[in-house]
Amino acid sequence: MHRETGWFSRERVLVLTLLAATLLALYLCYLMAAPFLPSLVWGLAFAVVANPLHCRIERRIQNRSVAAALTVVLVAVVIVGPVALIGQQVFQQVAGGVQSLNAGLSSGGWRETVLRNPALGPVFQWVESYVDIEARLKDAGAAVAERMSSWVTGSVWAMAQFFITFFLLFYFLRDRRAVLNALRSLVPLSRAETDEVFQDVEDSIYATIYGSLTVALIQGALGGLMFWWLGLPAPLVWGVVMAALAIIPILGAFIVWIPAALFLLAGGYWVKALILSLWGAIVIGLIDNILYPVLVGSRLRLHTVPVFIAVVGGVIVFGTSGVIVGPIILAVTIALVDIWKRRTAAYSTAEEAIGENLTARLTGREAKPAGPVTL
């Protein structure tokens, strides 16, 4: 029977059609899943972090669904309560800060205070000759007030994402073995290599949650408490900002507390400025070097530059979930590169052994056994 040959044989056309249909289906699935990416990522992260607790609960409660539900409730109580309380207080402080800013701009008292300062007064007058500072500040206050309404709208979707996250967390915990087996069947690697990649992903999530996020939250809390003790405005808001900046390598809480210390110094409060500077440099600045090794240990301590690119790039591409997705992608990439290096080294070893045996046969010397090569 005659068979078609060449690039456009029936078999190749069928394979290319199947490949195109599969890629199209995967792309459509991605479009449907993209709005839920933050929930998927945080659900996976919470599942990894809560897995030891879930295993202990599962040993005492034989029903997998009940054990998973109880773990989800405990995680929700630990996370949702503080987040809701802090979110409410931050919103109130931002609203109060906007009102105070508008009142201060309307009265003009802030301008007189700056002009009376012997160091800042001449600089302020020089800048004011080129830029209408008061108008710019009023525009900034109006922009923040306008943003408040969009924050309220976004908070509704954020609450929905919370519920979806814990909904997914339940199934990630209950069906984790089935999910891992399904992923193993799709990954074109050996079981040992797949376990290595999975372990790197787990270490990345563990290091991000227990290391970066926990340390950043502690730094933000310490900074906010010092702002409150010194009587600076909106301490909770600035504490949240310091925590967010501390997550990103290279950046940190110093971006907030250094300008605040300079503000206090310019206002004549040099004792408060000194206290804030010492607190920021010694307590907040060194907490990362003390706590991170204790919380993370030897798990995935990568170089600062690639982690910085992974976190910032992940946030730019994936939004808030990029804090987790970026380091995961970096860890998976490093694991795959290591696998390729080992496979390439194995092939090189095999080729060298074959070459030595061929040379030995041609020269009449005794050939060395090549030995098994693991690929």
Features:
single chain, mainly alpha, 13 helices
Report on this structure.
83% of the residues lie in helices and 0% in strands. It is elongated, with a radius of gyration of 29 Å. Helix 2 (37-60) crosses helix 6. It folds into 2 domains: 36-186, no CATH class; 189-369. It has helices at residues 10-33, 37-60, 64-107, 109-116, 120-128, 133-174, 176-186, 191-230, 235-247, 254-266, 270-296, 304-318, 322-363. The chain is an all-alpha fold. It contains 13 helices and no strands.
**Percent strand:** under 5%
How many E-type strands?
0
Structural class: mainly alpha
Number of distinct helices: 13
Give the proportion of residues in helices. over 70%
Mean pLDDT across all residues, rounded?
76
The profile of the biggest β sheet is: none
User: What count of structural domains?
Assistant: 2
- Using only C-alpha atoms, the radius of gyration works out to 29 Å
Which H/E pattern describes the elements?
HHHHHHHHHHHHH
Distance between the termini: 39 Å
